Input
Amino acid sequence: MTISITGLHFESDPKLKAYADKKIKKLLRYHSHITDIKVRLLSEKSHRGQEQDYYCEITIHVPGRILEIVDSERAMDKAIDKAVERMKRTLIKHKEKEVSKQHKEGVFNKLLLRFKK
Output
């Protein structure tokens, strides 16, 4: 499992990357089969004026699926927090769907065995 954090269009300091890394590692609790995590931190001028908008893109590879979240805020740490929180909910939802499918298959197989006798 690899975690890569890259910054585009701004000077990313080591503290910010360490903060993002710490937050991203907490996502590993919510799904056991994560194979790859990519985080892109972006900065763009706002269409409203001279202010900066900061974006955090998180892409997680799990078997059979690629989960992607993009969030923006006025401060980079807030963008990271929002994106991590949304990804957490997405991972939980994805894992619940997987478990639900496995249980449905198990119940169906039990019914088949009962009627084959």
Observations:
- The beta strands are 2-8, 36-45, 52-62, 65-73.
- The chain has a mean pLDDT of 88.
- The chain is about 45% helix and 30% strand.
